[in-house]
Amino acid sequence: MSSTLSPALPTDLAPDSSGTTDDVDTVTAGSAPLIGETFADLGLPRALERAVTDLGFVTPSAIQSRAIPSLLAGRDIVGVAQTGTGKTAAFGLPLLAAVDPAVAAVQAVVLAPTRELAQQVAEALSSFATHLPGLQVTAVYGGAPFLPQQRALARGAQVVVGTPGRVLDHLDRGTLVLDQVRFLVLDEADEMLRMGFAEDVDRVLVQTPTGRQVALFSATMPAPIRRVAEQHLHDPVEIAVARQSSTVTTVRQTYAVVPHRHKIGALVRVLAVTEADATIVFVRTRDAAEEVGSALVERGISAAYISGDVAQTERERVVERLRSGALDVVVATDVAARGLDVERIGLVVNFDVPREAETYVHRIGRTGRAGREGTALAFVTPSEQSRLRHIERTTRTPLEQVTIPTPAEVSAHRVAALLARTPARAEAGRLDLYRRAVSAHLAEHPDLDAAELLAVVTALAVGDDGPAARSADGELDEALERARAGAARARHDGDGDRPRRERDEGRRRPVRGEGPTGPRYRVAVGHRDGLQPGALVGALTGEGGLTGKDVGKIDIFGSFALVDIPGGLSPEVVDRLSRTRVAGRPLRIRLDTGPRPGHGASRPPHGAHRPHS
Question: How far apart are alpha carbons 497 and 223 in whole angstroms?
């Protein structure tokens, strides 16, 4: 494939003084694809074209229009791109084109830095493979049981998406064999190296055949990433794309601080008072889509969920019900919601805050269409303040903080809606049965005031069973208040992006339970259990709602490990992580109360591992 050398490369892609770009084709891509180009122009196999059409893709993004033809032609590529630019389809479609579903062996591997990203990529690839019978995609990552992943690999999965640490676990145990790998992807390579996975990535790469094709994607192109490309890629095409970060001007953007375990209760209240005709609720994973969707249905809400596991025909049926008004709420993953264009959507709820601002922009763009106004609401846990600030900085749009409706506000809204329907019901007639019943009841209870009876009947009609049934509501209200107060303190002391600091000193004083960069936590898993740094990071990001940037240095000892988490963890997150199993054992995470550096523990004992900084 011929390409042009552009003089307008970003600084981190520009050739160095030695002029080492002679053997590299370089393509720059703006924010739009070639004019008039469609996916039919990219040379995809028919089965993948059908999948793209089913998902509602029409025009390829900039990176897709440049990367897909190069990868289909067998070239290695280095892509400078971030989440939200369409890079998953850019490498995913050519990857699937290179795989033979008839061969029950691993033929393609995608390495991702976090459990969350691995799940998202695996779900996307599964949705692209709808018309490739026999093709199996398996996600492997730390913080999850090993045996189900082993069984999936044994059944002949052709595509594996995983975090470096867990991929190595499978390689070391012989449950993953890479002898027939044709295609390898390094997704968010700079993040993997920053998280301490450099050696792990290199070990995986050297165990794949020398003739395999490699696609490397990175948000930046520092020297370590260039070294990886020079060592493991052959004559790569370099592609740089600009990212979109403009938000929709017709959308009111809000957020509420909600602890993780109370999100469903908060969502039910929000849906009870919304004036929107229809709502879409975005979650990160297919499991979350099923859990949240089922919970809403159990509470009597007209809801359904769609994810990569839901057949395309069923997804289309759900979207049509939403469009017709037969359905009011759809819970969806980002992949499943592609192509979803319904004018009725007046509210978008980010049940899980997305990792990237671009994903946030794409989500809220589902409302406020065709000149209509819409509302976007993000549920932010106390430990996710940095994500919120990142979205605001990137989109240059401050989000308005709102509070979750109280039980009294929910009841008042339902009463108002009920009373608003009374004139039409009165005009419809046929009320004699009810008049007689009310008259008879008042006659039997002469001390009962008619207005009091109407109030009781109205309370029952809107689902208010009285104070005895409000204990769960009270617990939710208290949790919301604590979360709001904690988030406010975090913003006041450090904008939610860094630990609290003493205002009258240039630096913090170390205290018990805190390392030099903030709180330090102890987990009850160590070298003896086979703990790998990637597995621990995967658990913290997958189950704790953190990003790789939230995790600091990790020291692994014989029977335990220490990890710095500068932003700290809420009690809810600590409770959830404590039950999470890594290397077959529960983490049992807690604040470390041992001696701090400079107090008799300046370095770990012999055998300790420091992979993360």
Answer: 27
CA dist., res. 170 & res. 177, Å (int):
8
Residue at 363: amino acid letter: R
Look up residue 527 and give its two tokens. 């070298």
Q: How far apart are CA 21 and CA 14, in angstroms?
A: 9
Cα angle value 281/283/288 (rounded, 5°): 115
Contact 305, 332 (CB under 8 A): yes
* Rounded alpha-carbon distances, angstroms, from residue 443 to 240, 438, 457, 458: 81, 9, 17, 20
Strand order from edge to edge, sheet including 108-111:
25-29, 237-241, 77-80, 213-218, 183-186, 108-111, 159-162, 137-140
Q: What is the mean pLDDT of each run of 10 residues along the chain (613 residues)?
A: 28 30 42 61 92 84 91 94 77 96 96 86 92 95 88 95 93 94 93 84 92 90 85 91 61 91 91 92 88 90 85 81 91 77 89 82 79 87 82 85 86 82 85 87 86 84 68 69 72 45 32 54 86 84 75 84 85 82 84 54 39 41
Cα separation, 258 vs 380, whole angstroms: 6
25-241 CATH: 3.40.50.300
Beta carbons of 147 and 175 less than 8 angstroms apart: no
Domain boundaries, the chain: 25-241, 251-408, 416-459, 514-612
- CB-count exposure of residue 125 (10 Å: 0-12, 13-18, 19+): buried
**Domain 251-408: what homologous superfamily?**
P-loop containing nucleotide triphosphate hydrolases (3.40.50.300)
3-state helix, strand, coil in the chain (%, to 5): 40, 15, 45
Alpha helices, DSSP H, located in 80-188: 87-97, 115-128, 146-154, 164-173
Q: CB of 66 within 8 A of CB of 239?
A: yes
Of 127, 72, 126, 63, which Cα lies nearest the Cα of 95?
72
Domain 514-612 has CATH 3.30.70.330: yes
Q: Cα separations (Å) of 438 from 79, 278, 423, 433?
A: 73, 36, 19, 9
Question: Token pair for residue 309?
Answer: 């596991």
Global pTM value: 0.52
Topology agreement, domain 25-241 and domain 251-408: yes
Residue from 101, 98, 59 nearest 75 by CA: 98
Per-residue tokens: 236? 């790569």
What whole-number distance in Å separates Cα of residue 137 and Cα of residue 157? Answer: 6
